[in-house]
Design brief:
By secondary structure, the chain is mainly alpha-helical. Helix content is 74%, strand content 0%. It contains six helices and no strands. The longest helix has 39 residues. It starts with a helix and ends in a 5-residue tail after the last helix.
């Protein structure tokens, strides 16, 4: 939803470039997606690649898992979503000159609205990943107890 919102704000800004609200949304709230777009621009110049090439396929995989009532596509989609959230976080890092020494400094993160958006994305993604993996791992143990109940106790 955040990627879709960022793309829609960008399209709206193209149509109304004098809107102060759209500039605020584009620069302050969705600046995270502008940085990730710049990071991807070195590899592809397709318009909307974050939405159509990353976010929508992850969403489609999750929807497929829900429709098929299969936990594997849900678990895989949450892994991809966590990877995309990590990419968003890493794309916020300003390009710096290569350093030969190790650094224990903090990771640069956006401030203000951008921070809240990034924190919300990371929290929702990690919570979703945790829940889907717990449900996925719970299924085999439940299946084992069901098999023991059907077969009855062993007579060894």
């Amino acid at each position: 939803m955040a990627t879709l919102s960022a793309e829609l704000a960008s399209l709206a800004l193209e149509r109304a470039p004098s809107s102060a609200t759209l500039w605020y949304l584009n620069l302050r709230v969705f600046g995270l997606f502008q940085r990730s777009h710049e990071a991807l621009a070195g590899y592809t110049d397709l318009a909307g690649v974050q939405l159509f090439g990353i976010a929508l396929p992850i969403f489609a995989l999750a929807c497929l898992g829900l429709m098929m009532r299969s936990k594997l596509p849900l678990a895989v989609s949450t892994q991809f979503a966590a990877g995309y959230a990590g990419f968003l976080l890493m794309s916020w890092q300003s390009p710096a000159q290569a350093s030969r020494q190790a650094s224990l400094g903090w990771i640069a993160v956006p401030s203000g609205e951008g921070f809240y958006l990034l924190a919300g994305i990371l929290a929702a993604t990690l919570l979703s990943c945790l829940i889907s993996h717990l449900l996925y791992l719970q299924a085999p143990s439940k299946a084992e107890t069901d098999c023991v109940a059907i077969a009855g106790p062993s007579r060894d």
